[in-house]
């Protein structure tokens, strides 16, 4: 009787080991569609309906590329630097340029925006009255031990 139980347990474990718990997809049966389609005229159109040039960039009706930004031309003449004045260890010097000033305010720095002159300093603030009764001075409620 014990031999049958051992044999059944061994057979069950071998079946579980042979089964893969998750099904595996067959990638060879399905292929993902391309990101563009080719019209009979040979013009490529992406999935959002934009025409594409031979390099794969979107183009408008006149043939100009859409969404391409010339970064050096766009930032020419701008000498602001997010790390201006900080020491850059790989160059061995301070970062060039200027720190961009805030969009609101009369200059650069903190506390120069509109209304900054109207804020009182801590010494000019009125003294606050203590909260009465203070939580440490309140007797415990009746029946509390």
How many β-strands, per DSSP?
6
**Percent strand:** 5-15%
Helix content: 10-25%
Radius of gyration, taken over Cα atoms and rounded to an integer in Å: 37 Å
The ordered H/E elements are HEEEEHEE
Count of helical segments? 2
**Tertiary shape:** flat
Rounded mean pLDDT is 75
Structural class given helices, strands, pairing?
Answer: little secondary structure
Termini gap:
67 Å
* Poorly predicted tracts of residues: 104-109
Order of strands side by side in the largest beta sheet? Answer: 1-2-3-4
Tell me about the biggest sheet? 4 strands, antiparallel
Structure description:
The protein is largely without helices or strands and 145 residues long. The protein has 2 helices and 6 strands. It has helices at 2-18, 71-74, and strands spanning 36-38, 44-46, 51-52, 58-59, 87-88, 93-94. The strands form 2 sheets. Strands 1-2-3-4 form a 4-stranded antiparallel sheet, with no helix packed on it. The protein has a two-stranded antiparallel ribbon with strand order 5-6. β5 and β6 (93-94) form a beta hairpin. The longest helix is centred in the first third of the chain and has 17 residues, at 2-18. The two termini are 67 Å apart. The model is unreliable at 104-109 (pLDDT under 50).
């Amino acid at each position: 009787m014990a031999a049958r139980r051992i044999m059944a347990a061994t057979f069950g474990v071998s079946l579980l080991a042979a089964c893969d718990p998750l099904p595996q997809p067959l990638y060879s049966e399905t292929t993902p569609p391309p990101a563009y389609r080719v019209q009979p005229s040979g013009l490529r159109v992406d999935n959002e309906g934009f025409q594409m040039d031979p390099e794969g960039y979107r183009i408008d009706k006149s043939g100009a590329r859409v969404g391409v930004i010339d970064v050096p031309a766009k930032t020419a003449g701008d000498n602001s630097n997010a790390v201006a004045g900080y020491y850059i260890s790989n160059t061995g010097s301070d970062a060039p340029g200027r720190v961009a000033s805030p969009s609101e305010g009369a200059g650069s720095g903190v506390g120069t925006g509109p209304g900054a002159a109207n804020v009182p300093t801590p010494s000019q603030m009125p003294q606050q009255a203590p909260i009465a009764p203070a939580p440490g001075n309140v007797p415990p409620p009746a029946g509390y031990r």
